[in-house]
Amino acid sequence: MSTLSVALTGNPNTGKSTIFNELTGIRQKIGNWPGVTVDKKTGYAKYDNRAISIVDLPGTYSINARSPEEQIVIDYLLNERPDIVVDVIDSSNIERNLFLTLQLLEHHIPILIDLNMMDEANKRGLKISTNKLSEIIGMPVVETVGRSNKSIKKLLSIFTSTVMHNYKNSELIDNHIAAVEKIKQDQLDPDKCEEQIIALRYNLIDTIIAQIVDTSNVASSSVTEKIDRVLANGFIALPILLLMLYGVFEITFTWIGQPIADELDFLLNTWFSGVAANTLASIGVASWLQSLIVDGIIAGVGSVLTFVPLIFTLFFCLSFLDGTGYMARVAFVMDPVMRRAGLTGKGVMPLIMGFGCGVPAIMGARALDSEKDRMISILVTPFLTCGAKLPVMALFAAVFFPNNASNIVFSMYIIGIVMAIAMAKVLNVTTFKDKQSTFLLELPPYRIPDMKTVFLETWDKGKGYLVKAGTIIFAMSVLIWFLSNYNMSGPTDEMTQSFLAYLGAGVSHLFALQGFDSWQAGSAVITGVVAKEAVISTMGILYNIGDVADDTAAAANQMMTALGGSFTALSAFSFMVFTQLYSPCVTALGTIKKETGKWKWMLFAFAYTSLVAWFISLIVYQAGRLLGF
Amino acid sequence: MSTNLSSEKITLAAIKPGQRVQIEYLEPSPLKERLMSMGLVPGTALKVLRSAPLGDPMAISVRSYNLSLRLADAQKIIVSTAAL
Hints:
Chain B: It holds the Pfam family FeoA. Chain B: One of its GO terms (molecular function) is transition metal ion binding. Chain B: Residues 10-81 form the Ferrous iron transporter FeoA-like domain. Chain B: It comes from Pectinatus brassicae. Chain B: Keywords: Iron. The complex is a heterodimer. Chain A is an alpha/beta fold. Chain A is built from 27 helices and 12 strands. In chain A, the strands form 3 sheets. A 7-stranded mixed β-sheet of chain A has the order 2-3-4-1-5-6-8, with helices on both faces. In chain A, strands 7-9 form a two-stranded antiparallel sheet. The radius of gyration of chain A is 29 Å and the shape is elongated. Chain A starts with a strand and ends with a helix. The mean pLDDT of chain A is 89. By secondary structure, chain B is mainly beta. Chain B has a single domain (10-80), classed as Roll (SH3 type barrels). Helix content of chain B is 12%, strand content 36%. Chain B contains 2 helices and 6 strands. Chain B has helices at 32-37, 71-74; strands spanning 10-11, 20-26, 45-51, 58-62, 65-69, 77-80. Chain B has a 6-stranded antiparallel β-sheet with strand order 1-6-2-3-4-5. In chain B, a hairpin with a 6-residue loop joins strand 3 and strand 4. At the A-B interface, helix 3, helix 8, helix 9, helix 14 and strand 10 of A face helix 1 and strand 5 of B.
């Protein structure tokens, strides 16, 4: 028998994705719908010896083809004609959910209506007559409780036993469609036409609801309402939000994610690369090949893998919070602040993560609703002071401003934030001025998240990063390895003789007006694109210091003479400003390419941040000179 | 269209938390169709729940779900406080 094709449609927050995850488990893959950054989720199930392919269409309130998501849903349903189209409905919110149902029926798409989360509706005191609804509309209706095994079995057995073309629209629906057609013919103004049709649909919905829903026992105040009185209200909402943000940040960058990343880093870059180096040497592999394998490939793989624990931890937290419904409250509470910065309320979570690491922050922007918000958030994140920039700042501050070190480091954070806000505003009125950013957000009921969904989402993020961003990051790391170990006459042991040193000397001419035009600084700027913390180790090698200590105070001692000789306090500050703002590291660049799907945006992110950094450090240096520093 | 005798227009943005109102009509705006699709059509009853800690946006309860919208958009929704 051929594979049965099933498509899941429905409003957001109906538990549709939970049903999809429960139906398919790990037999699913996530891709992109062509041309847009909307996830395409397909999966497989087997029941009664029948292979079933299931696609989880984006959650939408309507199918008017106004957004990419709506366009995807209607195109897919009309062009692919799946065997069974399931319309997943949140039973406790059936009124608004039926709007999409009517639209689907108007397109003559036979649907299996799934009244999901019936338990929640019953708890709220709603009584819904499933049979009556089926009778009124003419289509099959099934009741489910999202994550129960029984419900999933029931759905699978209905999928394999139901023949959709046996069902016809009821007379009531046929009459409705005729009325819609009549409006379309009579009303020539397209806006008015659409509005009249919308009103007609809600008229019919009110009629249907009156017949199938008994609201006489509905509780006046729901649990959600009680929780919101704390989490979304008054002055206590903000401190709680800050506490939540702080918690997620600490879990990711202090308690769980970073320690695992450090372990992994040690295992790969110290232990494994040591073992590999010894093994390769003992079997007599040529030294250039040893270097390629150990310093190029293993280090490249290492730079990809060490970010994985951060991404897994952060997305576990974000996806868990999203599952509870709290993320919508974050957006609600933060919208006024973020809007003034040219961003949107939901963007606060990914942006804050940018102070830990830009990579998960850039990936987190995917949760934002509009393309414009996503792009702006992705493009301004790199200005923030991530964990890798911090040691560079701390070292320079300790060497050049020993009495004021923490204030100087703090000023870097401020410069980063100010530039992020300023560029968000600039991008808002230039590159993305035609795109609309709106704020119309459902505050879904609080729920206990479905852990299967949380784990699957986390896994997908990690896998997507490894496969899509990993290859780019790996390639760029190997390229930089080549540049720092080779020159025109072949391999070289001295980085000072490498392509990198020549390039550094060339690049350094760009910084004559910023006061740091030494070839060492130029080379450090180049390796800083691989990883920001590499700025220090590169300078250590180029100034013949050898390994720079991890401890800031010890490192400052080592570097004091070398740096003191080639930087003044002012040119050091200008160099710090440049390092704070210029190009994201290759890992972040690879992630930008993956998230935006376009090389263009990756190159743009590289070029515009570097230009901004160049100008700001120029202004800082020249203004400082005028002021007599 | 309006059953309200007073000539002054009351917009949703001016309604205090806890109050129930009925939608009279929506003024033209880029969001109009989306708002209507989400169930905010003339005649619909709704309740204002709260405003965000910084005053904007506001949260309403409509057709048994909760929605938040900015005050600028709420100003395009004309309501009446006539007995419900």
